[in-house]
Amino acid sequence: MMNIAIVCYPTFGGSGVLATELGKALAEKGHNIHFITYQQPVRLSGFHANIFYHEVRVPTYPLFDFPPYETALASAMVDVAINHNIDLLHVHYAIPHASAAYLAKQILAKQGKHVPVITTLHGTDITLVGRDKTYSPVVRFSMEESEVLTAVSDNLKEETYRNFNIDKPIEVIHNFVDIQRFNKRPVDAFKKLIAPNGERIIVHASNFRKVKRVIDAVKVFLKISETIPSKLLLIGDGPDRAEIESFTRSCDQGAEIKFLGKQEQMEDILPIADLFVLPSEYESFGLAALEAMAAEVPVISTNAGGLPEININGYSGYMSPVGDIDDMAKNAIAILSSDEKLLEFRKNAFQQASKFGIETIVPLYEALYFRFYTR
Ligand code: GMT
Questions:
Q1: What is the reported pTM?
Q2: 153 and 29 share a domain?
Q3: Which of 29, 209, 227, 344 has the most other CB atoms within 10 Å of its CB?
Q4: Residues 24 and 143 in one domain
Q5: Mutation test of ligand 1: which of 121, 124, 128 has the most ligand atoms closer than 8 Å to its C-beta?
């Protein structure tokens, strides 16, 4: 069994969620997993004998306007690699994890320890932030220097080649979902609380950043509710939330919209939903939509980025061009207008999610790791 260090963002973003779920699944298989993050990852709760959490501390000093996180992270990687006999480092999200891993790898090599680095690209590390010329030379270099580069969708692989002039092969390993965990029966009392008169429940979950176009989810909902009595649950938090909250207060149907904030137990909320709306400008993959589908919730999304790799138009939901509120609302109404139609889409969404089950995808990462296992 391997000793694997996983570096990720511990927050609610999809990359951190995926990395944490991967670590937990690998620990279940008997590997020792060492998470190196600046905070306990949100999906990492409870005790597991094979899971270890190492917090990166960044001591401050009056000279530092910007505390040197990358240096502290690289030092933590070195420390964990030596003291826990780490076989490989798997970093999720290139910035700044891949360059910190490169630095750690060089330091370890000087001490006679070879630790391969696997970098998994998740999306904005390439499409928004990484390609900015402020970061791109370092991102390109550290991608080239990783032993393996993986991307979470074919689209992200293409975007990486389009944005960065690199020759390195990129292996696509799609994101996954723990079907058993999300495929729960809805709690009737909770459903009644949200929709006391049997209204349809529509859900959007994201980090409320511009790229998510949360306002479009609200506008789609407003159109749906002109025809079908519905409630909208907006889950998550982020920079656009205040503006969207104030917009919803000015709408006639504002009382039908609830902001739930950040939620850790999505598997308890999603089963009460009838529809998941993801109107993003771009998604490399759309893990939130996959989790909804595993809970038998059809998805209304845009056709941006990697979304067509998971949402099948007219089967697990529908896709529309970015910003086409009318089309998204029309499609949503088509699904929600009859119980039979909704049931059909629910079943299809679940079938589609099953293709991305944890038991199918995690062995692909494991096989990748074993290519570098030398002990
Ligand atoms: O979506 C975000 O803004 C968060 C971001 C992250 O890195 O945490 O999500 C990206 O990675 C997820 C997991 O691989 C993907 O499911 C999301 O589609 C991707 N987000 C974007 O590409 C905008």
A1: 0.95
A2: yes
A3: 209
A4: yes
A5: 124
